[in-house]
Amino acid sequence: MKRLTLVILAICAVIMLAAAVDLPDWADPASPASTHLSPDFLEQGYGETATPNIVTVVLADYRSYDTMFEAVVVFAAALIVLVVLRHTPRKRRKMLQHRPVREGRDTVLRGAAQLIIPVMQIFALYVVGHGHYSPGGGFQGGVIFGASFILLALCYNLKFTIERFREQAVLVCVAGGVLLYAGVGAVCLAMGWNFLGYAGLAGILGVGEVMARSHGILAVEVGVGITVFSVMMSLYYDLASGGDLDEGL
Amino acid sequence: MTWDASLLWQFDLLILLMMVICAIAALSLKDLVSCAVVTGAYSFLICLMWTEMLAVDVAFTEAAVGAGISTVIILGTAQYVKRRSKD
Amino acid sequence: MDEIFHFIIGKYNYWASLVLLFIGLYGMIAKNNLMKKIIGMVIFQTAILLFFVSIGAKRGATVPIIEFGPDKQPLLEASAYANPLPHVLILTAIVVGVATLGVALAVLQKIQRVHGTIEEDEVLEDQRQ
């Protein structure tokens, strides 16, 4: 059976490799993908939003519906993991086979974590705030901020982290990030512009329309960052403890 | 038509070859913890590949998500299941 | 000779992504252990993402962040920057990817709880009883 799978997949692979010959050359500046839509973004993006990082502009302004529902997908994934792991009948629970026993006081690990974690958190905030001018933004900053708490849970234990950041607070953050994103869109709608048309924020912030779009991008990036950070923590809490929130990895 | 030296094709081929080796190793190792670690190495290599293709934002995300968080959650699951797999 | 060399150099990225795609698909179909299937899914996913970003690469370009000239004027030539659109699509796809990986691992842990194993044949055997 495995042999048969391998043969069928090899035939498919040969067909697709032969089809790949017709693709435009790699890194060809005249390929269709680089000549239709993206030149407009590159040439007009800076003038319309005053934000040099075009990836951030396209992510949070031109394609902001996409990003908003992507944040909703991540939110839904966190809830599904919670529901799947929390409410299960535990009749035939065979696990805990090589559960690590925590006895020693791991002085080196804890000292290193105390040094690294504050630096990581400040760096995460920098990545979110400076995403307009350098690589970075809500996704990366949120993941790094979540990783700092996961490092805390790995070096101490999960209980120690949950005492400092309770699960209810994490779930409020998950919903709050999406709400902030949608709220910015709703404010734009209330000011008489399209949903997520950040130029509508100009009257509230007291700046021109171009700067209002720049500030709107920052606001939704913060919303995405909060959602991603708390979803990563929620996934770690549930998956590392099997839904019990007791010991952790 | 000359090939631009800014895209180092020898370096690319080396990374892509190592990625294929890592992918095969991640699927053929029998120890699930080793599989998780090799998957993290694979994510790191693809992050190098994306930096090379000038997708810096993508490489940044992959370095944080693929090599960091996914490895940790795969390891967190691996502690609850039997460590040796049959194939 | 030069043409063959150019042909190989011009396409190798697509070929590598297709090879990775079929390695991942083989893992998803043929492996018996469910954790191996999930790792196959991760490889399959990154192969598609590699294909997308390969489309956006541009020779002689730089990263898609607008640069400023000596007179503080932005340089707005599209050919000087890599294509930003695939980068945006892939950026969101990576984060969605880790979310789906989390859901898959949660289902895996539940299968382990209910059936006591994650080998596919043993799970099917357990269901038949």
Automatic annotation (TrEMBL), chain A:
Transmembrane segments: 68-86, 107-127, 139-158, 170-196, 216-237
Annotated membrane topology: Multi-pass membrane protein
InterPro entries tied to this protein: CPA3_antiporter_subunitB (IPR050622), MnhB (IPR007182), MrpA_C/MbhE (IPR046806)
Residues in Na+/H+ antiporter MnhB subunit-related protein domain copies: 108-233
Signal peptide: 1-27
Keywords: Cell membrane, Membrane, Signal, Transmembrane, Transmembrane helix
A Pfam entry, by short name: MbhE
Any one Gene Ontology cellular component term annotated for this protein: plasma membrane
Superkingdom as given in the UniProt entry: Bacteria
Domain MrpA C-terminal/MbhE: 3-87
Main location: membrane
Subcellular location as annotated: Cell membrane
Similarity annotation: Belongs to the CPA3 antiporters (TC 2.A.63) subunit B family.
This protein's name: Na+/H+ antiporter MnhB subunit-related protein
Origin species: Desulfurivibrio alkaliphilus (strain DSM 19089 / UNIQEM U267 / AHT2)
From TrEMBL, chain B:
Pfam families: MbhD (PF13244)
Ranges that cross the membrane: 6-27, 32-51, 63-81
Topology in the lipid bilayer: Multi-pass membrane protein
Domain MrpA C-terminal/MbhD: 17-81
Keyword Transmembrane: yes
Keywords associated with the record: Cell membrane, Membrane, Transmembrane, Transmembrane helix
GO cellular component labels: plasma membrane
Location of the protein in the cell: Cell membrane
Record's protein name: MrpA C-terminal/MbhD domain-containing protein
Species in which this protein is naturally found: Desulfurivibrio alkaliphilus (strain DSM 19089 / UNIQEM U267 / AHT2)
Upper classification of the organism: Bacteria, Pseudomonadati, Thermodesulfobacteriota, Desulfobulbia, Desulfobulbales
From TrEMBL, chain C:
Localization per record: Cell membrane
Gene Ontology CC entries for this record: plasma membrane
Keyword Ligase: no
One Pfam family per UniProt: Oxidored_q2
Membrane topology: Multi-pass membrane protein
Keywords, alphabetical: Cell membrane, Membrane, Transmembrane, Transmembrane helix, Ubiquinone
Residues spanning the membrane: 12-29, 38-57, 88-108
Superkingdom, natural source: Bacteria
Family to which the UniProt record says this protein belongs: Belongs to the CPA3 antiporters (TC 2.A.63) subunit C family.
Protein name from the UniProt record: NADH-ubiquinone oxidoreductase chain 4L
Originating species: Desulfurivibrio alkaliphilus (strain DSM 19089 / UNIQEM U267 / AHT2)
Lineage, highest ranks first: Bacteria, Pseudomonadati, Thermodesulfobacteriota, Desulfobulbia, Desulfobulbales
